[in-house]
Amino acid sequence: MGTLIRTNIKLAPETQFLIYPNPFPDVLRIIISKPGNELEIWFTDMSGRKTNRITRTVSAAGIQEIPVVGLAPGMYIIEISYGDRKTRETILKLPY
User: What is the H or E stretch that residue 33 is in?
Assistant: First the structure.
């Protein structure tokens, strides 16, 4: 299986974040274009149960590495709030 490497990614200020890779084994990466807000991430399993919540203050723009080693493999809906922006995506957590 190949590895996807992203370089020189520039996000428009209105976008504010990009989530990758999908699927992921144990670390999810979120690129933040503007620092200074609290990042809140909820993981919801396919039965609708919220399983994990992660929060952190983003002090610098760039890649935020989110370790999720305690998350069981499977499909999740990830909900991200950052400043006044919110997004929801379906992601796949792989076994390691």
Answer: none
**What domains are there in the chain, each with its CATH number?**
29-93 (2.60.40.3080)
| pLDDT value at 20 more than 60 | yes
Q: What is d(CA 45, CA 48) in angstroms, rounded to the nearest whole number?
A: 5
Question: In this predicted model, what pLDDT tens digit does every residue of 40-89 receive, in sequence order?
Answer: 999 999 999 999 999 999 999 889 999 998 899 999 999 999 988 899 99
Maximum alpha-carbon separation in the chain: 37
Q: List, as one string, the DSSP characters of 8-29.
A: S----TTT-EEEE-SSBSSEEE
Note the pTM of the prediction, 2 decimals. Answer: 0.80
CA distance 3 to 25: 13
